[in-house]
Amino acid sequence: MRIDVLSLFPDMFTPLKQSILGKAIDKGALDFHVTDFRDYTENKHNNVDDYPFGGGAGMLLMAQPIFDAMAAVEAQAGDKGHVVLLDPAGRKFDHHVAEELAQKEHLTFIAGHYEGYDERIRELVDDEISLGDYVLTGGELGAMVIIDATARFLPDVLGNQVSAEEDSFQDNLLEFPQYTRPADFRGRKVPEVLMSGNHAKIAEWRLKESLRRTWLRRPDLLNQRELSQQERDLLDDIKHEAEFE
Ligand code: 21W
């Protein structure tokens, strides 16, 4: 996969190029490019923003530097890819969106740092994504979160670590509690069943604790999941146990 980012703060992406994504880049699984669109301005002060026609607070990102930076990406990559505009009014990012983006051959993110975009920029855009209902100072962190979560779905990015498929949210259940040595940490003991060697009992305990955690913390996730008869029975137990706590 090729990923391009258009940003005024290319240095913000340095940590992303290292660590886990750095390995993916080294292996050739990911081809990552950041373009500083200030390099494409055509005015003598290299301005990328201007006042809104009609008045109002804040500055808007101008169309020209974005159009020309995008043309440079297209010239280099052969296409502009699936273009994502980071915008607080976009569709909300989640695990499903990450999996969808991971299917694309080429993604291009536009990360602004202003109050808004000249509307004509949207002519270049295929998708508008928000991280959630809070205000950031710009789109860069949004682009980084999306790139990180999306790249986990690419073969060769996680390497031999657990597959992204097995991680939480795929199955709409939170993870069960886990323990490592010692079995007794200053009087706090590991649940007996985990040391029983009975794999069927361990699997049932883990499923029940996943259900309990999800029911307590994220009941919205349970509504997105088809429950088996066993899961419904375990959930009934959990609700009874909660009444007697
Ligand atoms: C903050 C952009 C406020 C636009 C009219 C006049 C990208 C983001 C951003 C930013 C405004 C994301 C207004 C979650 C975010 C981002 C900077 C609009 C209000 N309307 N996901 N003034 N939250 N934020 N200002 O902020 O670019 S993805």
UniProtKB/TrEMBL annotation:
Coiled coil: none annotated. Residues 1-224 form the tRNA methyltransferase TRMD/TRM10-type domain. Its EC number is 2.1.1.228. The gene is trmD. GO terms for cellular component: cytosol. It is an enzyme of class 2 (transferase). Homodimer. It catalyses: guanosine(37) in tRNA + S-adenosyl-L-methionine = N(1)-methylguanosine(37) in tRNA + S-adenosyl-L-homocysteine + H(+). InterPro entries: Alpha/beta_knot_MTases, tRNA_m1G_MeTrfase_C_sf, tRNA_m1G_MeTrfase_TrmD, tRNA_m1G_MTases_N, tRNA_MeTrfase_TRMD/TRM10. The keyword Transferase applies. Pfam families: tRNA_m1G_MT. Keywords: Cytoplasm, Methyltransferase, S-adenosyl-L-methionine, Transferase, tRNA processing. Its main location: cytoplasm. Specifically methylates guanosine-37 in various tRNAs. Belongs to the RNA methyltransferase TrmD family. S-adenosyl-L-methionine binds at residues 112, 131-136. It is found in: Cytoplasm. One of its GO terms (molecular function) is tRNA (guanine(37)-N1)-methyltransferase activity. One of its GO terms (biological process) is tRNA N1-guanine methylation. This is tRNA (guanine-N(1)-)-methyltransferase.
